[in-house]
Specification:
Elements: H1 4-7, H2 15-26, E1 32-33, H3 45-57, H4 70-84, E2 94-97, H5 100-111, E3 117-122, H6 127-134, E4 138-143, H7 159-164, E5 165-171, H8 183-195, E6 199-203, E7 226-231, H9 232-235, E8 244-248, H10 250-260, H11 269-279, H12 283-305, E9 318-322, H13 329-336, E10 343-344, E11 346-347, H14 348-351, E12 364-368, H15 373-386
Parallel strand pairs: 1-10, 3-4, 3-5, 5-6, 6-7
Antiparallel strand pairs: 2-8, 7-8, 9-12, 11-12
Helix pairs in contact: 3-11, 4-11, 5-6, 5-10, 12-15
The structure holds pyridoxal-5'-phosphate (PLP).
The site of pyridoxal-5'-phosphate has 13 residues, from helix 5.
């Protein structure tokens, strides 16, 4: 009854952690969920107010334009130019998305034929591979770990994969490691893709959550053959609004718009208006960066006190904590669920597509910096006191 496409998706790897969390809840404990990258803080009030006003303005709701309103695309282009110094034509180089998850999952439908390869960072955001499989393409998992400095090693990609590849996904800043691709790496990556006629797709969902120098965008290298995916979800704590965009090469954007016309009817007008307001302000973004930075430092120091390797992030809302030698990622995640700690995290084993390409010492857990300050302090204290191997 179920399609081949759906049935080929793997079993849900978080099942063991979820089961343990449910058991703890049944026994009256209150585990803190650091699994999802979903901010618990409210969306800033001025954005919520703008949304409420826009609902009235669009009292007759009407279907929104699926490519995004002109005002929204202009707001994206203006913000992008201020932030990255690259001018984008809002008419031909920007299209709205219902958040990046939608656009990432669907993109292969526009460019991938059965049997084509799509290069995906491993571990990486699951829709890179699942969207590929739904388009009947074959993911190639490029390891991003200690060994590769947390970026895909271009020289290690086999020629037969590169020859059949249509799309190459890069996440910068990376989830889960927080690694930022330098301009030098981005230039090599874009040129490598261009030489092989592969679309360079840069997922920049965490571009505004950084703790040192601001990350670059792949569109600073070139707009030819490059698409960038971003959204308001992480930048402005708007995960529930579902508003994002794809920008880049006009020829590719035109094809993507053709696909999108068949998929959805666009982000609602009033949400696009709220997003325009969000892009008019940087102070709330700077404030959130500080919140993530202080939580990240709290957890990093707690793990160091517990005797684990120092695992600081350059960017993103995650700590990618390395496990002690001889301890698997699942064992570390399990230990963090101990009744004296009660932190729900994601083990690297659950995020990896091709275990064979990761050595036994590539064991990590991902902690999302989304808990309240009080919960974060309590967890950090518990980790430093009670995490023992
Ligand atoms: C790496 C990465 N890309 C894209 C997304 C999608 O975010 P959204 O669909 O909310 O824009 C996420 C969400 O967690 C993510 O972690």
């Amino acid at each position: 009854m179920v399609s081949h496409r759906l049935s080929q998706l793997g079993a849900y790897a978080m099942a063991a952690v979820k089961q343990r969390t449910a058991d703890l809840k049944d026994r009256g404990f209150h585990p803190v969920d650091l699994g999802m990258g979903d901010p618990s803080r409210p969306t800033p009030k001025f954005i919520r107010d703008a949304c409420a006003q826009a609902v009235e303005k669009h009292a007759a709701s009407g279907y929104p334009p699926f490519i995004g309103s002109e005002a929204y695309r202009n707001a994206v282009a203006n913000w992008f130019e201020d932030r990255f110094g690259v001018s984008l034509c809002a008419d031909s180089m920007v299209v709205s998305s219902v958040g990046s998850k939608e656009s990432i999952f669907h993109l292969p439908e526009a460019f991938v034929d059965p049997g084509d390869r799509v290069i995906c960072p491993d571990p990486g955001y699951p829709p890179y591979a699942s969207g590929t499989q739904f388009a009947e393409g074959i993911p190639y998992f490029a390891p991003v770990n200690y060994g590769s400095d947390f970026l895909p090693d271009l020289d290690s990609i086999p020629d037969e994969v590169a020859e059949k590849a249509k799309v190459f996904w890069l996440t910068t800043p990376s989830s889960p490691s927080g690694k930022i691709a330098s301009m030098e790496y981005l230039t090599r990556w874009v040129n490598w893709c261009r030489e092989r006629d592969i679309i360079a797709c840069s997922d920049e969902a965490y571009s505004e959550i950084y703790f040192g120098d601001p990350p670059h965008s792949a569109l600073e290298v070139s707009t030819e053959g490059v698409l960038v995916f971003n959204s308001l979800s992480k930048r402005s704590a708007m995960t529930g609004y579902r508003v994002g965009w794809v920008a880049g090469d006009p020829a590719l954007i035109a094809e993507y718009r053709k696909l999108k016309a068949n998929i959805d009817t666009g982000t609602p007008w009033f949400i696009q208006d709220a997003a325009i307001t969000a892009y008019s302000d940087e102070s709330h973004v700077a404030e959130m960066r500080e919140e993530y930075r202080s939580r990240m430092k709290l957890f990093v120091e707690a793990f160091v006190e517990a005797g684990l390797p120092r695992s600081e992030s350059e960017a993103s809302m995650y700590v990618w904590q390395k496990a002690p030698e001889g301890i698997s990622s699942s064992q570390l995640a399990e230990a963090l669920l101990d009744e004296k700690i009660l932190a729900v995290t994601i083990p690297s084993e659950a995020l990896i597509g091709d275990p064979a390409s990761h050595g036994p010492d590539e064991q990590f857990v991902r902690l999302s910096m989304v808990a309240s300050w009080e919960d974060s302090e309590r967890l950090a204290e518990a980790i430093s006191q009670h995490l023992k191997f």
